[in-house]
Amino acid sequence: MPPPLRLVNWLKATYQRPQINPEWLEACYEYITTELGVNSNDFETLKSHVDEQFLQSSLTDSVLPNNGLPAPDSHDIRIKNTLCEVVAITEIGHSAFSLKNMTARTIRDGHKTMRAIEYRRIPELELGVTPLGLKIYLKDVNVRRGIIFLEPNGIKIKGYQTEEFEQNQDRDFVRGLRLRMRLPEEDPNEQRAPDPRPEPGPVNRANPPVTQPAVSRPVTGGGTGGAPVQRPVNPSVPTRQTASSTKGKAPVVDLDPQDLDVDFEDSYSIGDGIGDETLDIDDAFLQELEEAEQRALMGEKGEVVIDSDEEIQPEIKPKSKAEPKSKPNPKPGPSKRMKVEEVIDISD
Questions:
Q1: Domain containing residue 143: CATH number
Q2: Is 277 part of a structural domain of the chain?
Q3: Are residues 82 and 175 in the same domain?
Q4: What span, in angstroms and rounded, lies between the C-alpha atoms of 319 and 302?
Q5: Which of 34, 81, 180, 216 gets the most CB atoms within 10 Å of its CB?
């Protein structure tokens, strides 16, 4: 059913450019009169519904091409009485990392697209508030180098929005910011391909090795009575055995601490007759060795005479400082007691 001529003339006078698509207008009129039940003779009600449907539609569907905005590279011209819609908004007052103040937008007449900026502040156009698809009627605006300069007195905000644009507003806004920040553009419709690698199974982690407690190993200190001295040994660190250290000693056998019926908290007291006194004797023995070494260093050489009697007692006889060289001992005369002389150099 074709719309009445009065309605067509009213639309041409209200929206001079671009021209409304006759097919869209006919479908809109049929929908209003049949679905909404509006009387075709009620012009005011019919006009109000048609105007609302037109401003909520996408101009790509409702207008004819090539009779709206000028060429995108136009310069130093003026645009008058042209309806367009906002398809993108971006803040240009600051960088893409701090968005405030002046906005730039992309507008189109349904087929041609141009850039527009706020030459003067327009409160109705605000990033995050102004919906995409908003209709703006350009009454009289200036174009410079393909950019439309918007002023409050040169435009009229018609309002409304397009559902198609509003659904993609967040995606388009993020896309514009990424382009300004020189980041790679992401395609929201592209789904990530599944990873061809199989998912790793559960990881069987081995239990940490059980650290055995320190086991005391008896070491003969050579002190009075030959009492051994207990020193802790870490079983995780191998002990380096040399020929001199193992000579004349019993071999060391590693035992499992669980097989020993002992209290490891008192491991420093394992053995018979080992206590604080043994440690004192060992220190005294070491002190005697240190004093003997110092006495030996004071002289050039030292003699050790060992008497092979019933009790062999070592005797250290340091040389006198007045004697420049060592003199051999005279041969002993015949006696019942036989002496054995041995010279030992302990300067080392």
A1: 2.40.50.770
A2: no
A3: yes
A4: 6
A5: 216
Tell whether 261 is covered by a domain: no
| Mean pLDDT of the 256-263 span | 52
Distance between CA atoms of residues 68 and 139, nearest Å: 13
Q: What tokens were used for 117?
A: 């900026």
- How is 201-236 classified by DSSP, letter by letter? ----PPPPPPPPPPEEEEEE---GGG-EEEEEE-TT
What DSSP string runs through 270-284?
-SSS-SHHHHHHHHH
Give a yes or no: residue 96 inside a domain: yes
Max distance between CA atoms of the chain, in angstroms, equals 165
Closest CA to 67 of 106, 24, 110, 14: 110
pLDDT in tens, 302-342: 454 444 444 445 455 555 444 445 444 555 544 444 444 55
Q: Map tokens 């030992």 to a residue.
A: 344
Q: Are 107 and 114 in contact (CB under 8 A)?
A: yes
CB–CB of 56/160 below 8 Å?
yes
Same domain for 108 and 49, yes or no, is no
And the tokens for 171? 């995606």
CA angle 333, 339, 344 (to 5 degrees): 125
Q: Please answer whether residues 136 and 155 qualify as being in contact, where contact means their C-beta atoms are separated by less than 8 angstroms.
A: yes
Segment holding 64, helix H or strand E: none
Q: How many residues does the chain have?
A: 348
Distance (Å, rounded) from C-alpha 25 to C-alpha 15? 13
* Residue 18 pLDDT greater than 50, yes or no: yes
Pick from 121, 146, 180: which residue ends a domain?
Answer: 180
Query: What SS3 state is found at 79?
Result: strand
Q: Which domain holds residue 334?
A: 294-342
**What is the pTM for the complete model shown?**
0.48
CA distance 55 to 24: 13
Amino acid at 255: L
